[in-house]
Design brief:
Radius of gyration: 23 Å
Mean pLDDT: 91
Helix content: 25-40%
Largest sheet: 7 strands, mixed
């Protein structure tokens, strides 16, 4: 007889990056929390984030300036109330991280007492001031390691590693009254069976969807799971056409997904053509410090114009000691590949990096489905608009995780544990003997998304992409209905759903702004609105 496993918790947090860890820690004093991690606890985008976290710590800087810079980068589509809320809560969120033990870099003290020294603040593209707190060039790792250690040692938090969330369980799906989330079915990747988690509240902290593209800076787990599950449960999504392509990922056959932080350009690195000439001043007066969408399009244009495989990032004109001190991770990794960044130019290409759209939420992270929250990259809060300002992403995780925790804590005593939930039914499926179908569809999806729905788009390309996407959805749904689930099948199912949402949002937008550029609609409209999709 097949084993039936059912877990109970007050709050189920799906995702173990900065957003999920922060939410779990803020709730754990008041609730029993289950934290679901798709891979090892540290395997997420947070761990690989290099640059830092934006917050006003300099006396010459202001919250109003942070708000203004975010609004400019967002190209007319940010929600100003959300931007202000985030900027106003940034410093307290950072102070909480510092209390947790995250060691941000400080200026060198003249008397040798670094404890009293101010924090070293760097500047990144789109920022008018130095306001980026960082831990060398491995800020995400410092945040992840510090928070996960506290999570592991907290008695009220149970961590389930190597679990895929399959789908949310809702009262509507079970044909019960109301519409509330009741938990989730999850795939135990080690034991290879489906388990049930009952929860009074569920939070999606699953990260972004950049794995839908052939080239990405994200780890393999960034497969849009939260967006797809929320959509299938009746939640609206917004602005999925705005996928940020990081301008500078290392172009090397032995280095997959290795990002070269924005802070390199913030500290004076130049972008060069293969002949050694700079090109960013030709595109924007801010040159290398222009927002990411402008820099990525400029690189894409130059590569296509010249037929070049890559362009180059050069910081070798800075003192070697300075470069090694501020960018030790990048220096070490590049050196392993035969590139000495204190002397050599670094080959770079753009790659899919960040999903600015997502599941629609309010200021507390609450979605359209009662009891379901979405925080971090999976969510659309209105903060990023048409383009995310550098180093606002980890900040959003921290601010909205705390806001969601406060909202959930106020309701805990009023929401009972869900009643009986039927176990996952595998009686009508069999083991797959055609895994090659998944591999083929996976490759086809990521290739046509890169070619047709990438940095530069057209109406014809989008139409072609949608036709292929619909065909893949039909094949994958048939496959899903007949065979037992697996990690690759679950991720492919979610990625195809997310791809459709990205394409439909891109087709609905009849102008170009921020991260969405359509050669058939090159101008900005005078009255922009978010692109909102509603499930049928």
């Amino acid at each position: 007889m097949k084993q039936v496993v059912e877990h109970h918790s007050d709050v189920l947090v799906i995702g173990s990056g900065a957003a999920g860890l922060t939410l779990a820690l803020h709730l754990a004093e008041k609730a029993k929390v289950i934290l679901l991690s798709k891979g090892p606890l540290s395997e997420g985008s947070t761990y690989y984030a290099q640059g830092g976290i934006a917050s006003v710590f300099d006396e010459e800087d202001t919250i109003e300036s942070h708000v203004a810079d975010t609004l400019v980068a967002g190209a007319g589509l940010c929600d100003e109330q959300v931007v202000t809320f985030t900027a106003e809560n940034a410093k307290s969120a950072m102070e909480w991280l510092i209390q947790c033990g995250v060691a941000f870099d400080k200026e060198e003290s003249e008397d040798g007492d670094d404890s009293k020294a101010p924090y070293h603040l760097t500047r990144e593209g789109g920022h008018s001031h130095r306001r980026i707190l960082h831990s060398a060039d491995a800020t995400g790792k410092a945040v992840q390691v510090t928070l996960q250690e506290r999570v592991i040692n907290h008695p009220n938090i149970e961590v389930l590693e190597r679990y895929n969330a399959i789908d949310l369980i809702t009262s509507r799906k079970l044909k019960r009254s109301g519409n509330r989330v009741l938990g989730a079915y999850v795939w135990n990747r080690v034991e290879e069976h489906v388990e049930t988690i009952k929860a009074r509240f569920v939070a999606l902290a699953t990260g972004g969807s950049s794995k839908v593209y052939q080239y990405t800076s994200n780890p393999d787990i960034a497969s849009g799971d939260g967006v797809a599950m929320a959509w299938r449960s009746g939640c609206r999504v917004a602005n999925m056409e705005f996928n940020q392509f990081h301008p500078t990922c290392l172009y090397h056959s032995d280095a997959r997904n290795f990002l070269l932080t924005e802070a390199l350009r913030g500290e004076g690195a130049y972008l060069l053509r293969p002949d050694g000439s700079r090109f960013m001043p030709d595109f924007d007066k801010r040159a290398e410090l222009a927002p990411r969408d402008i820099v990525a399009r400029a690189i894409d244009y130059e590569m296509k114009r010249l037929g070049a495989d890559c362009v180059y990032l050069d910081i070798s004109h800075k003192p070697a000691d300075f470069v090694i001190k501020h960018f030790p991770t990048i220096y070490k990794r590049c050196l392993e590949l035969g590139i000495d960044i204190t002397k050599d130019r670094i080959p770079v290409v753009p790659a899919a990096h960040y999903t600015c759209g997502g599941v629609m939420t309010d200021l507390h992270g609450q979605t359209d489905l009662n009891g379901l929250y979405a925080i971090g990259e999976v969510a659309y809060t209105g903060l990023h608009g048409a383009n995310r300002l550098a180093s606002n992403s980890l900040l959003e995780c921290l601010v909205f995780a705390r806001a969601a925790a406060e909202d959930i804590a106020c309701q805990l005593s009023n929401i009972p544990m869900p009643g009986d939930i039927p176990a996952w039914d595998e009686s009508k499926v069999s083991n797959s003997d055609e895994e090659v179908v998944i591999a083929h569809n996976w490759h086809e999806l990521r290739l046509f998304m890169w070619d047709y729905v990438g940095i530069v788009r057209s109406d014809k390309r989008l139409e072609r992409a949608l036709r292929r996407c619909v065909m893949l959805q039909q094949e994958i749904q048939e496959y899903y209905s007949n065979f037992r689930v697996s990690n690759n099948l679950l991720e492919l199912r979610n990625l195809v759903q997310v791809a459709e949402l990205i394409i439909r949002c891109a087709m609905a937008r009849k102008d170009s702004r921020g991260l969405h550029y359509n050669i058939d609609h090159p101008d900005k409209s005078d009255n922009p609105h978010p692109t909102i999709l509603q499930p049928e």
